[in-house]
DNA sequence: CCCTGATTCGC
DNA sequence: GCGAATCAGG
């Protein structure tokens, strides 16, 4: 695969949208994320964030001060978006504000979970929520990176595994990790 | 472990 | 110019 105009354009678009190099590569197909990153750099549009560059002032001060008058260098300006191809029928409706993935609803103080032997109702709610979006995989479809949380009754047709992307390392997705790893405390000494 | 982007360097 | 390998975080 080569970098055709279309592909480059898609690359630019996605990169601009904040897509990761791997996602872009997947979308384009035929290239690896490395290829994408390499291209991104060659295109000169590496840093996507403008306000997060703290102390990394990578400046190439090479214009020899001694040099009286080398060739004119009228292109110190940021070459992010040279020009707008008139092809676009309408202006981009892209709000400058980057859309942050704010899945967390409101500011939850997130209690220190003292002696919570119960699963937080919040976590449970999350699970119910998630199970609607579950991939509903069968045992054989599970992989290293799919949530292995079982849902339903194994003795029924209505049984499946969550299948969502697992929380790195763990066997379950974020929601299920929440209910899987209980404080483990009570239950032990049930009265009898 | 898996994922990110950044860089290097032979092709 | 290209991108695998590698580096450096998270």
Task: Walk me through the structure.
Residues 41-118 are annotated as: Disordered. Pfam families: GcrA (PF07750). Residues 83-106 have a biased composition (Low complexity). With 192 residues, the chain is mostly helical. 27% of the residues lie in helices and 3% in strands. The protein is built from five helices and two strands. The chain has helices spanning 5-16, 21-28, 33-43, 121-133, 174-180; strands at 150-152, 159-161. Strand 1 (150-152) and strand 2 (159-161) form a beta hairpin. The protein is elongated and about 55 Å long. The chain binds a DNA duplex (11 and 10 nucleotides) through residues 2-3, 20-22, 31-42, 46, 144-145, 166, 168-169.
Q: What is the element layout, followed by pairings?
A:
Layout: H1 5-16, H2 21-28, H3 33-43, H4 121-133, E1 150-152, E2 159-161, H5 174-180
Antiparallel strand pairs: 1-2
The protein binds a DNA duplex (11 and 10 nucleotides) through α3.
Biased composition (Low complexity): 83-106
Region (Disordered): 41-118
Pfam families: GcrA
Question: Which features does this protein show?
Answer:
elongated; 5 helices; GcrA cell cycle regulator; two-stranded antiparallel ribbon; 192 residues; single chain; DNA-binding; GcrA; mainly alpha
Number of helices: 5
Report the structural category.
Answer: mainly alpha
pLDDT averaged residue by residue? 68
- Lateral arrangement of strands in the main beta sheet: 1-2
Measured distance between first and last alpha carbons:
70 Å
Query: Which runs of at least 5 residues are low in confidence (pLDDT < 50)?
Result: 49-104, 110-115
Largest sheet: 2 strands, antiparallel
Give the % helix.
25-40%
Radius of gyration: 25 Å
**Total beta strands:** 2
The percent range for strand residues is: under 5%
Morphology call:
elongated
What pattern of helices and strands is seen along the backbone? HHHHEEH
